[in-house]
Amino acid sequence: MTEQALFPRLFATGDLVQVTNPGRYERGRWRVLGVVASTTASDDPAYDVVNVRTGRRRVFHGSRLTLKR
Q1: What is the CA 62 to chain-centroid distance, rounded?
Q2: 39: confidence class by pLDDT, cuts 50, 70, 90
């Protein structure tokens, strides 16, 4: 089991994060708005995030996010 699976990342509202292995339109810094209520996998919750520069909103699983300061 990986360290990431043993210690899931929990992000608070307002945290600045970056997407690991970003695809098209997923680059840059994102601000966490909160946990998505319909998340079924409690070990890897999904987060509602907004891009700081463009204002675009997306939902990402916590395993794809890295905390930035």
Answers
A1: 5
A2: low
Task: Decide if 47 contacts 41 (C-beta within 8 A).
Answer: no
- Annotate 29-67 with DSSP letters as a single string: EEEEEEE-TT---TTS-EEEEEETTT--EEEEEGGGEEE
Return the CATH architecture of domain 3-68: Roll (2.30)
What's the rounded Cα separation, in Å, for the pair 68 and 26?
15
More confident residue, 2 or 30: 30
Task: Look up residue 18 and give its DSSP letter.
Answer: E
CA dist 30 and 40 (Å) reads 23
Pair 25, 13: CB distance under 8 Å? no
